[in-house]
Structure to design on (420 residues):
């Protein structure tokens, strides 16, 4: 059986290709570093990169369509590896209430909080959820997102979770973006299961996940390991059920307290552990040993006015890859700008601009299990990249707000202006 070449390895340079893109500095992001190639060139065939390097060394490719930029930089397409974009309604009224002094407990007692989103999601049709999700997803795409993960988790019933997952799959068909679907049924305890969390976990493991797997509605399974959600033992049951169905796992862990959920995720070789404000050095060591990515979510940290930062120093010390994501959701991170997360990752969590950019390219791709196909500018990778008329990569982190001009290439073709 032939062995597929690594993205970094190629045989002789190709003699033909569909298109060549040159005239800018390539920010390749190989190994999480800029690894700049000044006056670089990218050759594309069939939606994949078949050659990269200095334009001076580029094969003739006389039959290819030529694209010439006037300076600037080219980065890999952005990967938003943690979102909750599909849900009913919004919680802007609650946001205003909190700022006017109403407590979260009072809001929840009046039917607000996550249960209000659950009710709105259950009441919405698939088409209504789709229309609302399109409204939220398009701004992310306009900024250069070419791959996005979207979680379920606001249905909290078999019927409604499946409805959300079907909508997520439809988004990947309608829009030119790679969509990865994650089943997050173990997000919160539905009201009808009050006091019966184990019964709800049984429903997820025995009924929901087998249907999800048989209908290919999810690429991974996630859970929320926290005092106000599910215990490590309950999460482990979900993980074991997912593994039996061949589904990789991820975990919301250590956001509000330390339950060592990230170490649990590592034991199950999870793709990622996310949030991690209360993760310890031992958690970081476990994640490093298993290759589990740390996904940092500064939007939720900012909106909740948290003060405990993720242990970035431990992640650096133990070489844990750090991804960044929008965590776009109705309650704690109504964020529709991944580029803003770059700045927040640097200003709030003290990442460097290079680390932040790696977080939404190569490490974001790794958090979705896509490191062999996405996240860097290398031969063999999918031809998703962005041209920016900027002087250096740090400008992507530096500018606050607004939509920077850019040319987005998705699978080797310029993506149209569908996001207005």
């Amino acid at each position: 059986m032939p062995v597929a070449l690594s993205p970094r390895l190629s045989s002789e340079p190709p003699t033909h290709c569909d298109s060549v893109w040159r005239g800018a500095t390539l920010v390749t992001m190989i190994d999480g570093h800029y690894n700049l190639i000044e006056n670089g060139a990218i050759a594309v065939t069939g939606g994949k990169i078949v050659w990269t390097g200095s334009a001076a060394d580029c094969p003739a490719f006389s039959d290819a369509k030529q694209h010439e930029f006037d300076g600037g930089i080219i980065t890999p397409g952005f990967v938003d590896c943690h979102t909750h974009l599909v849900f009913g309604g919004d919680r802007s009224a609650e946001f205003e209430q909190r700022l006017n002094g109403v407590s979260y407990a009072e809001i929840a007692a009046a039917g607000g909080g996550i249960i209000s989103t659950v009710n709105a999601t259950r009441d919405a049709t698939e088409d209504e959820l789709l229309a609302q999700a399109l409204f939220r997803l398009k701004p992310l795409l306009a900024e250069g997102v070419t791959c996005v993960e979207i979680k379920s988790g606001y249905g909290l019933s078999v019927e409604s979770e499946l409805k959300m997952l079907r909508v997520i799959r439809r988004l990947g068909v309608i829009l030119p973006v790679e969509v990865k679907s994650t089943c997050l049924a173990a997000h919160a305890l539905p009201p009808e299961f009050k006091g019966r969390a184990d019964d709800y976990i049984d429903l997820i493991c025995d009924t929901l996940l087998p249907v999800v797997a048989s209908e290919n509605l999810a690429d991974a399974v996630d859970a929320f390991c926290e005092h106000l959600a599910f215990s490590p033992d309950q999460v482990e049951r979900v993980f074991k059920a997912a593994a039996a169905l061949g589904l990789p796992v991820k975990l919301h862990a250590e956001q509000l307290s330390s339950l060592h959920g990230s170490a649990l995720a590592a034991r199950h070789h999870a793709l990622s552990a996310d949030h991690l404000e209360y993760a310890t050095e031992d958690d970081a060591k476990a994640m490093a040993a298993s290759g589990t990515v740390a996904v940092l979510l500064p939007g939720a940290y900012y909106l909740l006015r948290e003060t405990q930062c993720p242990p970035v120093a431990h992640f650096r010390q133990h070489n844990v890859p750090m991804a960044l994501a929008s965590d776009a959701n109705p309650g704690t991170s109504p964020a529709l700008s991944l580029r803003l997360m770059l700045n927040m990752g640097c200003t709030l969590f003290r990442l460097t601009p290079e680390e932040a950019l790696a977080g939404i390219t190569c490490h974001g791709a790794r958090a979705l299990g896509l490191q062999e196909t996405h996240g860097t500018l290398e031969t063999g990778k999918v031809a998703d990249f962005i041209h920016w008329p900027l002087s250096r990569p740090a400008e992507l982190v530096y500018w606050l707000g607004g939509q920077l001009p850019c040319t987005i290439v998705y699978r080797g073709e310029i993506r149209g202006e569908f996001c207005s």
